[in-house]
Amino acid sequence: xxxxxxxxxxxxxxxxxxxxxxxxxxxxxxxxxxxxxxxxxxxxxxxxxxxxxxxxxxxxxxxxxxxxxxxxxxxxxxxxxxxxxxxxxxxxxxxxxxxxxxxxxxxxxxxxxxxxxxxxxxxxxxxxxxxxxxxxxxxxxxxxxxxxxxxxxxxxxxxxxxxxxxxxxxxxxxxxxxxxxxxxxxxxxxxxxxxxxxxxxxxxxxxxxxxxxxxxxxxxxxxxxxxxxxxxxxxxxxxxxxxxxxxxxxxxxxxxxxxxxxxxxxxxxxxxxxxxxxxxxxxxxxxxxxxxxxxxxxxxxxxxxxxxxxxxxxxxxxxxxxxxxxxxxxxxxxxxxxxxxxxxxxxxxxxxxxxxxxxxxxxxxxxxxxxxxxxxxxxxxxxxxxxxxxxxxxxxxx
Length: 398
Fold this sequence. Notes:
40% of the residues lie in helices and 22% in strands. By secondary structure, the chain is α/β, with parallel strands linked by helices. It is globular.
């Protein structure tokens, strides 16, 4: 039989342990990070984890936020809205997270945003690009550090003014984000006097793009716009190379297609593709350069992806807001985050008061062979955030 200890000494010990636990909680600010661990996006989880750990490590080394240390709470989930909400609820109610961030797609984030008020938590988005999240579905507790679809399209539109292509084909993932991007690109092309020929959609998880490649390769337009993600993007790039599909077009532009996490696997099959990104190694600026060096040093020479930079910048914005508020009270931090201006690894960033969309730079890059013979990014143009951010959607009512 187990002996149960009783008495004043034991009670004092228990009380002391409880006080120490409470003191530790008071000295830390928890950040809940939702990470997708299955499906085409699962391969991006590691780079997000690395960025979060590096950002928190460096911010804590510099004194933390409002005198407290940041602490990550990692929650893995299957990438569905219900699983995301369950994970967020656990991070906030069980682990005491003040902020939520991580891998939240345009299908997931609306459910998370709607839950924030009841959780009394704040969210800084780094993944979902759908306009309505900072438009008609805007939320006082929801902030977006990454670019939205309209910002990317504005950058593409500006680029195409100097590189006119009059007819386009589109291939996109058969998903809300893919259909939305295809619709916006078609509108952009028509606004510049161009036309759209074929628009094809492929389900998430497509392993064989043969039929799509054959269809596109038959009487192709001048340009091709590609919105295919993750492991599906690798499949498309490699399979099209066997038929020389991209070479049949004067220009191929990717939207989240050739991202750093998949470029090594694509290799030469992605050469020549233009890709809008919020960050690439080689971008000028003290913070950007220091971030790349710190990331390489910590992770054995690995270069950070643009999603890693977005994630790092999101945590920078969290810390800046907490410092500005000098508090961890949700209402105070929310007020401090609204309208916040900060220098980040992405460059100058401003969280717009009216809709909580962050204005920050966007880069147009082309995939070329680097000095080492491997495919890499060559920056063609940098668009300041103030030039590409779309007007506030009148449907946003905070």
